[in-house]
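Support case: user asked for a sample of complex input and structure output to validate their parser. Sending the pair below.
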Amino acid sequence: MNNSGNQPLTGLVDIEKPLTINDYKARGGYIGAEKALTEYSPAQVLKIVQDSGLKGRGGAGFPTGMKWSFVPMFAPDDEQAPDNKYLVCNADEMEPGTYKDRLLLEGVPHQLVEAMIIAGYTIGANKAYIFLRGEYHLAARRLQSAIDEAYQEKWLGSDIQGRGYHLDLYVHTSAGRYICGEETALINALEGKRANPRAKPPFPQVSGLFGKPTIVNNVETLSNLPHILKNGVQWFQQLSPNSDAGTKIYGACGRVKSPGLWELPMGVTIRDVLYGHAGGMQDGLKLKGLLPGGASTDFLLPEHLDTPMDYDSIAKAGSRLGTGGLIVLDDQNCPVAMVLNLMRFFAQESCGWCTPCRDGTPWAVEVLARIEAGNGNAEDLDTLAKLCDFMWIGKTHCALAPGAVEPLKSALKYFHDEFEQHIDHGCCPYHQNATGGH
Amino acid sequence: MQVIETVTLDYRSYLTANEIAAIEHEASIMETREAAGIEALKVVQAHRGWVSDDSLLAIAQLLNISTAQLEGVATFYNLIYRQPVGKYVIHICDSISCHLTGYEQVLAAIKNHLGIEYGQTTKDGLFTLLSNVCLGGCDKSPVMMIGKRHYEYLTPESAVAIINGLSVNVDTQNVVAEKVEIDHE
């Protein structure tokens, strides 16, 4: 009955027709939740998740067990206890170049429902929401169908499986803004407000949704839980050869031979993902650089190909693992145009709350557009460098602007010659070859 | 003397019973009525195609929140239309993977074929063209979304063919955008 294998997250994915609850159970589903509810107290499940070493797969890589441990726990008769706590699944997958959660949402929705039962039980939440991006219509329908089945089979609602635990689970489809992926902005969106991030502290674990203790976890993070509960901590750790436990869903997009998604041991090299799985570059193209984990990570170069894709190794190479999806730049596409495209995204999606982000991102777009059009001057590069400083960590309200800086700052470092060529020649040297807009 | 016209409206006669029921359901699973605001905007948009000023007033009244606050929410989110749109709203992904694989040529072909720019609707009221941030189809780029369906591996030719296919299948009933549910399964 152990179907977790070495690809636990994607082993049961069927993108054409996801498993019904009975088929999912027949393939080992809901065993993890059953174990949690029958064999362990919430504190014991928390200990298991802490010991597993599971880290958040949404981009920040924060240890999941530690995050949960900040939720205040109360005895049932404690007068201080809040009347509710909330669990929220962050399924607002809007990081450009990221499409891994979609696979899990569309392909194996029951895995997420089961995961949320385990997480909700652990933190003592009786209400949970899946915050789903509005464009994922198919995922919305399949999740709702899985939730309906789970209610029918007494895996949701009151007195789950006769174990006395109550959990209601709802799908909330977003109306679309990248900033909703930031967990406090997401909470504001769930409250029906503009999705401006909140000041911290208080942290959501103490005062989140409707002022109650709230945990927000990414889809891929949560999806590990049924397997950790079912197979244990040791099994989870031996999935990976290095210190970061478990598997990771890696991706590669851009002009590579076979773009896609692959669940692999945490810490495989960039080379393994790009050449072993994505088939390398399309014919006639050479690798120029790549973003290792979504739009808001620093460029890496061909010389970094043997870097393991785990949190620490990618950080040492000067970037972030982020979401683990490679965005690959070929030698016929213009790096300035690529950074311009990324910066336009961040400028559009800035929530407008703090000045460095609201004014800095459009300013960077203006300068980058000028350079790309061949109208740049030498001072523009200084301006861009200054903007990278103005929008860096500690000077903004949240991580959006620093995320926008990462590809820009690293491009100025690694592709300095290309920026200068645009300025010196008064045109984009890639004009004839690029797929991009000119 | 300048006279400022104010609109009075009773949501009970403006919103349909179906709309009110759907909004009340959303409000019932949230702790506050305000929290159902975004869902309420989506409900009305699903029935009417877009969110007019009158719709905004009616929802604000039903949920007992200020119209200005709801307008602030409605204009914050990308998928709430505050202007009339065509029967089909074409959302072209303009993010990084689609950029690297040439969405600009697809966009140019669509603009040329329909004779509209971003934000415009064709004269026959069939198509509105909008950009969309990353649609999460990066391994199948370029991509676009029309109604509830995502179209992948686009070329200029295939995009125009898809649009032509939709124009041919138009029925004569007055169906609004979000009601056009093209199933994926």
